[in-house]
Amino acid sequence: MKRRHALKMIGLGGAAAMLAQADHGRAESGAAGLTPAKPPEIKLGSIDLREIEAIDAHTHERTFLTASKSNAVYARGFADGGLPPGQFPEKDALRDRLIPAYAAHWEQMPPQVGLRNYIARTYGVEPTRDNLDAVIARHPDATVYYREKMDYERIAAVVLQSESTDPVRPKALFPDDRFVWTFSIGPLIQPGWARDRGITEIDAFKKALLDVVTTCATNGCRGIKLPIAYYRPISFRKVSRADADRALKIALAATPSAFIEGRAPIYDDDKITAALWAYEDYLLNALFVHAGELGLNIIIHVCVALNTLLRADWNDPRGLYHTFTDAAVQAAGTRFVLIHSGYPYHHHVASFISQFPNVYTDLSYISHHPGTLEEVLRVFLGLAPSDKIMHGSDFSGPEAFAYSVDNERRILAKVLADYRDHYGWTDRDCERMARNVLSGTARKVFNIPARG
Ligand SMILES: [Zn+2]
Prior knowledge:
The chain has an eight-stranded parallel β-sheet. It has a two-stranded antiparallel sheet with strand order 1-2. A two-stranded antiparallel sheet has the order 7-8. By secondary structure, the chain is of the alpha/beta class. About 50% of the residues are buried. Helix content is about 50%, strand content about 10%.
């Protein structure tokens, strides 16, 4: 249950986001009174990419925790996530041994090195954890802080994934006029969700699920998130209604041996696991069509990095080809957003976004890693139109999501300079590509109105 708490609704960078937050009690450590420096230009020919507004296509939001608390919580989550699910005698001792290793590991990962250096050049301090804490501690009001950083980095709006299982616009720390929201379907396809509602038949399950999705659309939701690659494959077979009903009854009658993320059941019997995935396939295929008819994007987590729960086999996106070419899905016009670039499957994602006009990707989480971001941007822009690619952070900490867009502009300038100087693209082509990646694609895909 402790892991359930630690990893509840976590995104790929969820833990990272928490760790980017600092200890408010350490305001006195030396950086009080700091004001951000005027940011240097990021030039692409005659264009300053800082003048182009950004939209963050994937963010989370959590209560700010102290660095010491969040570090401990998430190091524990990663240690636990990398161990076999369920209880076994050596588990506690193993976890205790792994926690300090994960805490130290995270401190030297590119997002943290980059963030400390962003703080240093923005506030004129040494790139240390204490100074990061002190900078963040200067901002007691989270909403004011978000607005300040969004204005500083010219982030017009964010797409915020709601943490709630209620299909209503979340009450957010982000300024109310600066976010749209999406909704995670992960908990709603589990046997426990059906059981809690007295649902025993697949028709009733489908109706209850699609009703929630309809309510989402009515309440202004922009997309349905599938975080399911954390606990099952992301390929979806066609299952008949009768087979789905039989499979649901098998799953409802079975006793799980453990749960992933506190909610996705694990069974010792592979036949029961197959039944679970079969009825879920049936529901998800119906969801894809319904979402398309309602104009809701389907947002699928595809990425293996950092979080120890993520498996390469379950994140393999190749089976999505059958979903993208499904006649009912095509008729509904459903848009798919494969988030976090699909890494290490970004070549497959590049292929998909070049093949299908209704498939998009974002650079969330990857955007905190300048070296990998450069590689991924080159792969995407090398194969597909820029209006299929979106900036995103996947983080919630104000300094961390600001660092992510600073990075995005710097790496875009570097990559697009090659298009301009060596590939024969015009200045106009390069500016259009920068505008699309930074905000134009997200504004269109998530229907974000321009601010008056
Ligand atoms: Zn996320």
